[in-house]
Amino acid sequence: MGTLKDRPIAGIYWWPTFMLRSILCVALLVGVVPVAIGQQNSSLQSPRISLTLPPDIPSETVQINYFMIGPFGGYGNFVRTEKGRSTYDIVTAVDGKPADNVKIIAYLPGCEIATLEISAQDADLSRSPSCEPLGRIWLHGQISPVSILKEQQPAEVVVDYLALWDHKFFGIMDGMVTTIRVATIVPDENGQFEAAVPDFGKQSNLGEGEFQFTLLHTNGNIIASLKPVGEDGGSLGLKVRLSYAPITQFLIDLR
To answer: 133: exposed, middle or buried (C-beta count within 10 Å: 0-12, 13-18, 19+)?
Structure first.
């Protein structure tokens, strides 16, 4: 880039570009470093719960949502996962105010969904979500109309589990439903696909849940929702059951 021309703005002249950049860099370093150090120290001093993962579970595959209640009201979030972790920490405070109660929903692939409820006095302790082995069940689908599917190639189907019971567990009336990604598959040229999903129907301690199907471009952009034909109760997804029809018909909804 060339240097800026000297011209007055509100009575101030532009300085040469390289000098302006140097001054800005110094100012930013002086202003940001203390804040960053302060935030780090604050985070280190905050109460937290450490969740220790079983050694055979890849840390990047787990999904953990939580909701806490305290003098700040209510606060919910999820854990951002990454490879090579043995534990994940949840800070149990908001704006420096410790939570009174924390509830956690943890999904570890191959295991039942684990729920934990932890009181304030148990903060700064390590917990390990239990892994009760859970099998998988096959879902076979047919997407219609195939003509629209072919126009949207390359595409894939993602399957999410919607924990419709989470509001009751967290003790809230509204908000986002806990969603767990359980499968990603590519339909064939005839619009057929099969997906192996967790057999949540055999986990007796869960409430109502359903599988939601979405058609995506392989770049991640949403194309359409896939609505199962014949699902009762106005459900947008496929309810969790112990077994399914040999073929489930799905209609492309571009709205």
So the answer is: exposed
